[in-house]
Amino acid sequence: VALTQSVPIAIAIFEMLGLGLALPYLAISFTPGLQRILPKPGAWMETFQQLLAFPMYAATAWLIWVLAQQTGTNGLAAALTGLILIAFATWLHQKTRLLPPLGKHLGSICALVALGFSLSLAQVSTTTPTALTYNQNQGIKWQPYTAERLVKLRQSGSPVFLNFSASWCITCLVNDRVALNQPETIAAFESKKIALLKADWTNRDPAITKALESFGRSGVPLYVLYPGDSEFTAPVILPQILSPEQVQRAIKNL
Q: Does domain 133-252 have CATH number 3.40.30.10?
């Protein structure tokens, strides 16, 4: 959000974020008595530290899923193999670090070789998934967005619903399922003969990036509803979090 605002507002947003992070320390500094309610150091900290690893594992799983959406099965296989090699290098270093010098050096060399192989996997050829693959089995039949197609549809007087989305965008996927791919919403689109375009930003297409910037946005989701006229009336920008009622109301008001 901050990146789409003016410089003063962007700076103010980051300053407020910094203030929020520093607030607990400021509160304890000004009110030393609050230290009494803080938990005491102990063995529980080790358990808590280990417990915090599981959200990191979950984040890794999500990032791998994102990578699979962007690069296909080859990229997924390379990422998983790289993680195994990194885990092996870490384990090997841990097992050999207390050995005599020869064993320690051999362990370090093997660990570095494993890390080198893991880095080399970044060069593995990947296959870009077909655009809109993640939406093939859902109700709406989207047309791929191009600037030329949008202009042609608008010149013909057809109303257009433009959906800027990406397969790794959780908000986009939820909006698709909850609001857009509902029978009532699909019926509303069909009743107004609205052309449905999807700008798939999964791999950061430069043309789609330029279109997003024209609306003052730096990311997805973005939902734009163009009225059905050939005079290029200003479009309606829908909220980033959609409900079926919001979409159907916007369609009804065309």
A: yes
Q: 24: cis peptide before it, omega within 30°?
A: no
Q: How far apart are CA 233 and CA 226, in angstroms?
A: 8
Q: Residue 16: pLDDT band by 50, 70, 90 thresholds?
A: very high
Q: Tens of pLDDT along 143-182?
A: 999 999 999 999 899 999 999 999 888 899 999 999 999 9
- Contact (Cβ atoms closer than 8 angstroms) between residue 131 and residue 70: no
Global pTM?
0.70
The CA distance from 72 to 127, in Å, is: 5
H or E segment and range at residue 143? strand 143-144
DSSP tag of 162: E
Give the pLDDT band (50/70/90) at residue 2: low
In this structure, how many other beta carbons lie within 10 angstroms of the beta carbon of residue 223?
Answer: 24
Gap between the terminal Cα atoms of the chain? 28
Helix (H) or strand (E) holding 104: helix 101-120
